[in-house]
Amino acid sequence: MTLFKEIYTDINQKIINGTYKRGSVLPSEGELQKKYAVSRTTIRKSIELLVREKKVIRKKGVGLFVYPEISKQNILDMTGIIRPSYIEEPENTKIKDAYLRKAGVYYANIFDIKVNELIYYISFLITSSEGKTYVKLILPLDFFPGFDPHMLKVTPIIEAINTGLYRVIDVYQEFQLIEGTDEDNRQLNIASGDPIFKITNTFLDDYDKNIAVEYKMQSALQTKYSINFD
To answer: What is the value of pTM for the model shown?
Structure first.
């Protein structure tokens, strides 16, 4: 077996056994080169084979990621009625904020946790040829120990949430037309007072426990949706 195939096999096995989790960030080519003590060319050949087999995603300027299991269409089937017209467009995701804060009364009630317990607050901007989506994700720390926000650059939201202690079984979805905050307007690059579509997705496990909340904001003047009433 050639050297690059040996490295390919080792990385692939780590993906299979969960050492490298679906949607997670892989070490960079430089880090892999040091780990395996080989040339950059050998590492690149191993990675290219994994990319061709759709086991690894390479995002230019972002890094290497394990290929996620869940497609956007799977998510649409689960969340149901609200479907943006650009769903198959290629996207670029940029993490804006990721930090821990105390839950407060509002999120303590939503997640049935104590007020002083910590929650992740993660915001990111998704850009496609059709426009921008500003997303805020709220996750209780105890439900998601060791959560890596960078996986959101390539991983569908439901799969990212499924890396926590609970599995998503259902999603409650609320659709609103609102006037955005100054921060929403700035991130979406729209004028103050312009209408915004706000979608709130609440993710539930098989006991109807709320395990995560996602807010998605998009310009109502630029975004088209189709709604399925079945």
So the answer is: 0.74
